[in-house]
Specification:
heterodimer, A: mainly beta, seven-stranded mixed β-sheet, B: six-stranded mixed β-sheet, five-stranded antiparallel β-sheet, 11 strands
Chain lengths: 115, 111
């Protein structure tokens, strides 16, 4: 295990539902990330938090809303999603500020299906 | 044009074969190059990291960077069924930037 856990591992939701993805890191890291992984596409960085402050938001639609209440926890709140939002959502953390050569440790992901 | 191009495969090889995985990139400003391995139903894990040009070896794995050709490779010697996974290349312009990933190559090593 990498020390980064994600729940739930699988989620099926309708377009009108509201749900949340949870990520927890047990590594004492200061930076946390949300990525989207779609089939046959590169990982897309969605959000970056450093010391609980959002430092990057990569033009992500407002139907995705991140929350970082402390340096160990990261949430992704979902509402009125579209079928094309179906993907694997990965959380990652790293020791220092985002970027650089600091290793990012990934969680196992949440497989999201939007009906 | 994509910043990083990677053949998605799938690539199937017999056990013991030498595997070559490759990525090309368009921006010569990339300085840091990484390979991640992703097993099914798992997140990616860092396998190899290289700064600038040259080779780096770690056990059965060798990472190679050719900045003049904008081309990076990962070689796996004596491949094992446990090497079956998706391999993702990733690159950074500089420290403080964000990782740019290739789309990943799915590798299957048959016993």
């Amino acid at each position: 295990e990498t020390g980064v856990t994600q729940t739930p591992r699988h989620l099926v939701m309708g377009m009108t539902n509201k749900k949340s993805l949870k990520c927890e890191q047990h590594l004492g890291h200061n930076a946390m990330y949300w990525y989207k992984q779609s089939a046959k596409k590169p990982l897309e960085l969605m959000f970056v938090y450093s010391l609980e402050e959002r430092v990057e938001n990569n033009s992500v639609p407002s139907r995705f809303s991140p929350e970082c209440p402390n340096s160990s926890h990261l949430f992704l709140h979902l509402h009125t999603l579209q079928p094309e939002d179906s993907a694997l959502y990965l959380c990652a953390s790293s020791q220092d500020l985002p970027g650089g050569t600091d290793t990012q440790y990934f969680g196992p992901g949440t497989r999201l299906t939007v009906l | 044009q994509k910043e990083v191009e990677q053949d998605p495969g799938p690539l199937s090889v017999p056990e013991g074969a030498i595997v070559s995985l490759n990525c090309t990139y368009s921006n010569s400003a990339f300085q840091y190059f990484m390979w991640y391995r992703q097993y099914s139903r798992k997140g990616p894990e860092l396998l190899m990291y290289t700064y600038s040009s040259g080779n780096k070896e770690d056990g059965r794995f060798t990472a190679q960077v050719d900045k003049s050709s904008k081309y990076i490779s990962l070689f796996i010697r004596d491949s094992q069924p446990s090497d079956s996974a998706t391999y993702l290349c990733a690159m950074l312009y500089n420290q403080g930037g964000k990782l740019i990933f290739g789309q990943g190559t799915e590798l299957s090593v048959k016993p």
